[in-house]
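Form 12-C: Joint structure prediction
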Amino acid sequence: MIERPHPRKGGAVPFSGLLWRLPWLRPVLLLTPPLAWFVVIYLASLVTLLVTAFWTTDPFTTQIVQYWNTDNFQRIFNEPVYHTIIGRTVGMAALVTVTDAALAFPFAYYMARIASRRAQTLLFAAVLLPLWASYLARVYAWILILSHDGLLNRSLQAIGLPPANIGYTNIAMWLVFSYIWLPFMIIPTYAALERVPESLLEAAGDLGARRSRAVRDVMLPLALPGIVAGSIFTFSLTLGDYITPILVGGAGSSLIGNVVYANVGIANNIPFAAALAMVPVAIMAVYLLIAQRLGAFEAL
Amino acid sequence: MKFGALAVAAMVMVVACGSSTNPNTGTPTQQPPTANMKPQTSIGSGEGQLNLIAWEGYVDPSWTTPFTQQTGCVVNAKYAGSSDEMVSLMKDGGGGQWDMVSASGDADLRLIYGGDVKPMNVNLIPDFQNFQTFFKAPPYNTINGVHYGVSLQWGPNTLLYSTKKFPNKPTSWSVIYDPANKGLVTVPDNPIQIADAALYLSKSQPKLGIKDPYELTKSQFDATVSLLTQQRQLVKLYWGLASDEINAFSNGDVVVGAAWPYQTIQLQQNNGAFADTIPQEGATGWGDTWMLATKAPHPNCAYLWDKWVSTPQVQAEQAISFGETPVNSKACAEMESLQAGSCAQYHADQTGTAYFNTIKFWKTPLATCDDGSQNCIPYDQWVSAWTTIKG
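Section 2 - Result
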C-alpha cells in the first residue's frame, strides 16, 4: 500500500513544498554553513585575539591572567622601539609592493598583449615556477647569492667592481621579499590587462595618441584595479612575514611578525603578541578600504 | 555593520566566559605547587607508550630502539624549537598528553613554579649515584632538596672565531663588543644572551657588583642592556638556528661570535679555519634535565626511560651525536671507546676543575634575588629588553 503525502492535510510536508511556502528558507539553508564557518573560524578567532590583547600574563609562570587592562596597547603606543618596528614593517611592505608593481606591469603587459599564445603559456609557467619550490629553499638560495663569499660578491669582483656586501641587511630583505611575492602581483595585473579591449587602444590611436600615450592614459587606469588587487597580496604577505627577516635580515631587521613570534614563542606573552597582531589587522583594514575605493575587488 | 554586530555578540560571549582576577605578582617566595606530591617509590610495568617533548637529536633511534625492545614502551617524540615552546607545550602539567620534557635550565624554574612538573624519586635511577656532584642537585632543577627532574647533559656557550682573522686565540669576550669587529659579529637571538653580557661586565666593570649574571638589579640590568645596545651596531646576524650561524661563518659573513661546541665541530669538519675558546671571564652554559609532567599518563615508562638515558652507554652515545657533555661520570670510558679523544674534547672528565667552575649555568631570571629581596629583573623584562636591543 502506497501512501501519498498530501501537503494540504498537515502531517508530513514535502521539503520542496516547504521551500515554496517559505521563500526565505532556501537562502537561509544555502548560506548557513558558509556563514557559520566564516563566523566560527574567522571572526571568532579574530575576536579571541582582540579579547586576549586586553589580558595579561603572570610575569613568572607566563600563564595568562584574565585581568582586564590596556597595558599592552599602551606599551605599543609609548615605547619608541615598537614605532620603529611598525614603521619599518609598513615601509618594507610598501617598498616591496611598489617594486613588484613596477616589475609586474611591463611583464604582464607583454604577456597579455604582445606575446604569442605559445610564449604566453611559457611565461605563465615561468611566473609560477618559483611557487613549486618551497619558500624556505628559495630564501636559502638568496642567502647563498648575497652572502660574503656568495655569487653576487664574486661576480662583482670578477668584473672589477667592489663587493656589494648586502647579505644580512634590510636591502637583502627587500630583494628577497620582492622576488618571493612577484608572482602574486603579476597574475592579477595580467588578468586586468587582458580584459582591456583592443578597440579602446585603437580609438586612442585614431584620436592621435601614440602607443605609449595610450598605454599611460588608457591602459594603466584600466589595469589599476588589477595592480591594486596584486598589491593586497604583496602588502599583506610582507606585513605578516617573519621568516625572511630571520634568515636574510641582519641586526635591526625585526618586523612586526618577528616581535609577535618572539612574544609567543620565547616570552610566551600571548596577550602582548595579540595586541601587536592587531596592528597589521588595523593597517590592512585601512588598506583594503582604499583598495576597494580603487576598484580592486572588481579585478579579483 | 552586520559583521560588526556579530563580532560584538561573539565578544560578549567570550567576555562572559572569562572572569576578572587580579594579576599574580608572580614571585616564587611560595613553595612550587607540586612540592608536596609524593613521587612513586617503585617502577611498575611499562604502559606501552611514552610521549616526550625533546630537543632535536635527543630521541635518536640508536638508543630508543633498544629501549622499546627491552621495555615495550613505544617512544613518541615532539621536537621543540625553543625553551619557551617547551614551556607552552607543557602547560597544565603536560595536559595529560606529555610524559616528559628535556628542558634546559632557562625553562626549568618556570615549569617548576608553574606546577607543570612534579618531584621525581632519584632512588629509582641507579646511575644517579654516578652523576657528577654538581648535576645531582643543580639549582636549576632542585629546590629545597626536592628533585624536579634528573640531569641529562650539559654544554658551554663558547666564543667561536675564525683562526684566519684571529691567529692568536682571543682571551676575552671583549672581542664581540669591540668596534674594530663592526659587522663581523654574531650572537644568538635569545634573551638569555643578556646573561652573557652581564658575565662579561661582572669582570670588566667590577664596580657594578654583578655576582650572578641571572640576578641583575635595575642598575646592573640597565648597564648590561646599554652594552648590548652598543653591540647591535657590530652585529651582522642574530642567529636563530645553529645552522644559520654555521652558514654565516662558513660564508665569511662573520668572524667571531657566541656559539655552542656543536657549531665548532661542524665547521671544523668542513674546513679547519675555526676554533672556539672559553675566555678568561668564563662562560654561560646550559644544563638539560628530563622532567616529569604533573599529569604524565605513562609514569612507569617515563622512569624506565630516565633510567635508560642515564646509563653510561646512552649518555656517551647522546654526547657524541649531539656534541655535548654527559653528567654520568662513568660515561667517559664509553665515549673513548666510541670515539677516541672525545672525553677530553667535550671536557667530560673536567667537572670540578677550573674549566668547569668558569661556567655559569642558565637559569630562569626571577624577581626574587638570592638574598630574598625583590630587586632583581624577572625574565619577562629580559624579553622586552631584548626586543628593544635588537630594535
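Section 3 - Comments
The mean pLDDT of chain A is 87. Chain A touches chain B through 49 residues (CB under 8 Å).
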